[in-house]
Amino acid sequence: MSSPSKRREMDLMKLMMRDYKVETINDDMQEFFVDFNGPKESPYQGGVWRIRVELPDAYPYKSPSIGFVNKIYHPNVDEMSGSICLDVINQNWSPMFDLVNVFEVFLPQLLLYPNPSDPLNGEAAALMMRDKTAYEQRVKEFCEKYAKPEDIGAAQEENSSDEELSEDEYASSDDEAVAGKADP
């Protein structure tokens, strides 16, 4: 590879060629969202998560920063920030890995084989070790509440710091009742 920027472009193109929905942030190839489907035959099946990816300047020699935007119930995912605890991304990254590995191997493996002994979400880890059936039910509840395919764009908006009203919300706001009617 001739440069890290060419590698970033190539990795992004490979993701899109595999039919991942990729949405760049500020038309920058270093920060983007990827829609990720929960693995089949797991409690996460049917869920869709928006994953925020940030590629450092030294990518692929330094690992990408990966985090869930919409909520997921998992021992190795921080419930508030969405950051993940995964050795292969955090400590054992190699330039031989690419973004396709992240989305087709590393993240599915994380969801299929959680590690409750190294948790970012202590409650999920404790429930998983104490009562696997209740843990799987809780995972499914989170999928239904936060990871429906039709809600994937809403997760990004919920985490946005902008608190603007949409046109519909603005039109339906009841300002008239507060201020009173205008004099004829």
Task: Supply database-style keywords.
alpha+beta; 40% helix; globular; 184 residues; four-stranded antiparallel sheet
Task: Provide structural commentary.
The structure is a single chain. The protein has about 180 residues and is α+β, with helices and mostly antiparallel strands. Helices cover about 40% and strands about 15% of the residues. It is built from 8 helices and 4 strands; from the N terminus they run H-E-E-E-E-H-H-H-H-H-H-H. It has a 4-stranded antiparallel beta sheet, sandwiched between helices. Helix 4 (about 120-130) packs across helix 5. The longest helix is centred in the last third of the chain and has 15 residues, at about 130-145. It is globular. Residues about 160-184 have low confidence and may be disordered.
Question: Could you give the topology of this structure?
Answer:
Layout: H1 4-17, E1 22-25, E2 28-37, E3 48-54, E4 65-68, H2 87-90, H3 99-112, H4 122-130, H5 132-146, H6 152-158, H7 167-172, H8 175-179
Antiparallel strand pairs: 1-2, 2-3, 3-4
Helix pairs in contact: 4-5
